[in-house]
């Protein structure tokens, strides 16, 4: 996008008038081509303020999540004094536009489930979306404290709560549209990077679409509605929920955008009270559970022989025609967890690949071995009940040790303990060694 197009877009009266309305009681800054911000604090007072920043080189505009009584007087020691409120903005960050759309629909479902009808969605101008709930919808006091002063802790707790509330639905929605190999390809990540260690999940959906409210901090900024995204040249345009399924990035070109929809301008007083109550209660319970939880850790002191591998692993090792890429991840994580030496893992993987019909490419195998070898964190194999893994590729044939159809084993790494009849730790932080 050339500078003349930028100048022509921001010189429009409808754009300038919207910026002035939306920027009222907010900090507003310009963003230059290199990503740096204009001088802070700053805000819009007159329409010509917009063009003044553009002439200085601003390509896009960001505004504060917080509302301020005197934005131009902000100093580190007066935030609580000048803050009059805050909006909840959930930033759905992803590499793939379709992933962002799915996440926006899922978050919208979660918000509506908590009785909130007045929320806003806007395209970021890139691949993601911003889902927002206006300050006017939140109760003015939470636990007898002024909620305006409870930033960023309250919006952070709400964000974390909504994240967990929609986790399962987001995972299912992504897998309904794409298989796990396609998701890995679209995100440029390995199967290991997007898979979940939970026995109830196939993928960690937040490795596909990041919803990270922990990043909320004082004077946090986000791209303003109707601002150009300097990286794509597209506009961060508000979108109706009903239009989201058919929304296309091309409709956000500056020359076609019209200011027809507001953002965070619809609200019902204290409409978000139920959401706040549920989120705060959930966060308190979560903290208590974390304090009570004691880690029971399984420690292998020597390699577990192949003859006591679970049936699923043995079936994989016979060679496959389908699910081979998923099986690479399963075999490597299982053998690493069962204390196999790295040269033994490599030898077994190459031996297994020769049995596949057809074998995976040598480049793929080498790449996966290299990635897993460099991982410093422990990665468990996927849980047994994940349909996208063992059941999905047809290798789940539970035996008596598994509990047959009851499937008492939750993860293949636990199978050798049941098979070898090792005692489990009695309680507390005790550790089991094999």
Helix-strand blueprint:
Layout (H helix, E strand, L loop, with lengths): L2 H8 L2 H11 L4 E4 L16 H8 L4 E5 L1 E3 L10 H4 E4 L1 E6 L3 H17 L6 E4 L5 E5 L7 E2 L2 E2 L6 H13 L1 H11 L2 H8 L3 H4 L15 E2 L9 E3 L14 E2 L33 H20 L5 E2 L11 H7 L6 H14 L4 H12 L8 H12 L13 H5 L23 H6 L11 E2 L1
Parallel strand pairs: 13-14
Antiparallel strand pairs: 1-2, 2-11, 3-4, 5-7, 5-10, 6-7, 6-12, 8-9
Instruction: Work out the strand percent.
Output: 5-15%
Please report the distance between the alpha carbons of the first and last residues: 62 Å
Task: Please name the CATH topology of the largest domain.
Answer: DNA primase, PRIM domain
For the record, what is the CATH homologous superfamily label of the largest domain?
DNA primase, PRIM domain
Overall 3D shape: elongated
Number of domains: 2
List keywords for this structure.
434 residues; alpha+beta; DNA primase, PRIM domain; 2 domains; five-stranded antiparallel β-sheet; three-stranded antiparallel β-sheet; 16 helices; 14 strands; elongated; disordered C terminus
């Amino acid at each position: 996008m050339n500078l003349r197009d930028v100048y022509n877009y921001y010189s429009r009266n409808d754009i300038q008038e919207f910026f002035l309305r939306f920027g009222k009681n907010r900090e507003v800054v310009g963003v230059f081509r290199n990503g740096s911000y204009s001088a802070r604090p700053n805000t819009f007072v007159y329409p010509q303020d917009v063009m003044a920043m553009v002439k200085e080189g601003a390509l896009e505009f960001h505004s504060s999540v917080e509302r301020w009584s005197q934005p131009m007087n902000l100093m580190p020691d007066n935030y609580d004094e000048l803050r009059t409120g805050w909006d909840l903005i959930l930033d759905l960050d992803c590499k793939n536009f379709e992933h962002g759309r799915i996440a926006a629909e899922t978050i919208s479902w979660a918000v509506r489930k908590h009785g909130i009808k007045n929320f806003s969605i806007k395209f970021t101008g890139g691949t993601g979306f911003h889902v927002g709930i206006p300050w006017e919808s939140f109760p003015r006091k939470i636990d007898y404290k002024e909620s305006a002063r409870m930033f960023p802790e309250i919006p952070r707790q709400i964000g974390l709560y909504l994240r967990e509330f929609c986790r399962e639905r987001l995972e299912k929605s992504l897998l309904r549209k794409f298989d796990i190999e396609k998701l890995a390809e679209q995100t440029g990540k390995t199967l290991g990077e997007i898979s979940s260690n939970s026995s109830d999940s196939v993928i960690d959906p937040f490795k596909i679409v990041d919803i990270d409210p922990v990043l909320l901090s004082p004077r946090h900024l986000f791209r303003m509605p109707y601002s150009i995204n300097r990286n794509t040249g597209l506009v961060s345009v508000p979108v109706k929920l009903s239009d989201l399924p058919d929304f296309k990035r091309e409709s956000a070109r500056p020359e076609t955008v019209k200011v027809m929809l507001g953002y965070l301008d619809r609200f019902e007083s204290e409409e978000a009270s139920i959401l706040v109550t549920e989120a705060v209660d959930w966060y308190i319970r979560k903290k208590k559970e974390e304090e009570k939880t004691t880690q029971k850790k399984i420690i292998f002191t020597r390699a577990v022989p192949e003859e006591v591998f679970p049936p699923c692993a043995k079936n994989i090792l016979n060679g496959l025609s389908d699910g081979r890429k998923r099986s690479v991840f399963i075999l490597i994580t299982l053998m690493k967890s069962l204390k196999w030496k790295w040269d033994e893992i490599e030898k077994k993987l190459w031996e297994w690949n020769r049995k596949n019909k057809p074998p995976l490419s040598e480049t793929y195998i080498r790449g996966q071995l290299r990635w897993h070898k460099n991982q410093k964190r422990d990665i468990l194999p996927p849980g047994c009940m994940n349909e996208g893994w063992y059941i999905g590729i047809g290798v789940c044939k539970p035996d008596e040790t598994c509990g047959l159809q009851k499937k008492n084993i939750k993860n293949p790494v636990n199978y050798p303990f049941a098979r070898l009849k090792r005692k489990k730790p009695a309680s507390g932080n005790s550790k089991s060694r094999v």
